[in-house]
Specification:
Elements: E1 12-16, E2 36-40, H1 47-56, E3 63-66, H2 77-87, E4 90-91, H3 95-101, H4 111-123, H5 126-133, E5 140-142, E6 145-147, H6 162-171, E7 176-178, E8 186-191, E9 194-199, E10 208-212, E11 218-222, E12 236-242, E13 247-253, H7 257-267, H8 271-279
Parallel strand pairs: 1-9, 2-3, 3-4, 6-7, 7-11
Antiparallel strand pairs: 2-12, 5-6, 8-9, 8-11, 10-13, 12-13
The structure holds fe (ii) ion.
Fe (ii) ion binds near residues 44, 96 and 181.
């Protein structure tokens, strides 16, 4: 914990967002209330999950943002890179992008992740490998908020718990930062010297939970993982930020997991990576 944490009470307050009504008509057309940002993270070469997510929110966003780990684990690295490049998404790199492009050697990965990274490296078309290599390091700023892969001070740092989030909240350049890397949809808040944890549990009957952004609160928000969720919900996770309306929607969209698993099996990717997609773990 940094020196600035001294004197700050580390209160743990959990909030559970109410599920949002699935009402397209309540959302005005593009431009009426400023930019709507589609926040994608940890797609992990799962083009079926990405396509399902994009189909579910067609017409509901203006600019796409990607928090890294475009590839790794999944069977579709070139297809996912092609999609993200086609969207002209503002994209920063993740640890799997570094390992899969060859920027890093994957020696600190576990054997399963390393296997997938080296397989990905063999599959990448040269122009896509170069695109991965050139991705900027977070934090990057857009539209009055920041994006990072893991944490602002270290792109590879995992922020799982309120105590790990505190320095990032105290040092935040903007009231809102989006982060990824943990594959857990939710986040953390700092208000009146108390850190809160946000959990989102959209039931099967709804596709998103809606969070209202409050004045005087600093937010670290994780949209969750599009292509390999780890919070027990197998549906693709992502977010849409409508900041002029002070709303962030946390989405879950089902996709055809077994078709991805079949491609992974054909590619010879590790069974543990294939199995975990169905359980969202
Ligand atoms: Fe990841």
């Amino acid at each position: 914990m940094g020196g600035r944490a001294s004197g700050t009470a580390l209160g743990i307050v959990s909030f559970y967002a109410m599920p949002g009504a699935f009402d397209y008509n309540s959302h005005p057309p593009s431009g009426a209330f400023g930019m709507r940002y589609l926040i994608l993270s940890d797609i992990h070469a799962n083009v079926t999950a990405l396509d399902a997510a994009l189909a579910a929110v067609r017409g509901r966003w203006d600019k796409a943002v990607c928090l890294g780990d475009i590839v790794g684990y999944g069977p579709d690295p070139n297809e996912v890179i092609d999609r993200i490049r086609g969207l002209d998404a503002l994209t920063i790199r993740g640890n799997h992008d570094k390992a899969s492009s060859g920027l890093e050697n994957a020696e600190d990965f576990n054997p399963v992740a390393r296997h997938a990274a080296l397989w990905t490296r063999e599959q990448l078309r040269p122009e896509n490998r170069e695109w991965l290599e050139r991705l900027p390091v977070g934090p990057v700023t857009i539209g009055g908020f920041s994006i990072v892969h893991g944490a602002a001070r270290d792109e590879d740092e995992y922020v799982f718990a309120p105590a790990q989030a505190l320095d990032g909240l105290l040092d935040a350049a903007f009231p809102l930062t989006f982060f990824g890397h943990t594959h857990l949809q939710g986040g953390f808040t700092l208000r009146d010297d108390k850190v809160g944890a946000l959990h989102f549990k959209p039931p099967e009957s709804t596709m998103f939970s809606r969070l209202t952004i409050e004045e005087g609160t600093t937010y670290l928000l994780n949209p969750g993982s599009v292509g390999q969720p780890r919070d027990g919900d197998a549906r693709a996770a992502f977010a849409i930020a409508e900041l002029d309306e002070r709303v962030v929607e946390f989405w879950r969209v089902p996709y055809q997991v077994d078709s991805v698993q079949a491609r992974m099996a054909r590619a010879g990717l590790p069974q543990s990576l294939i199995s975990r997609l169905a359980s969202g773990r």
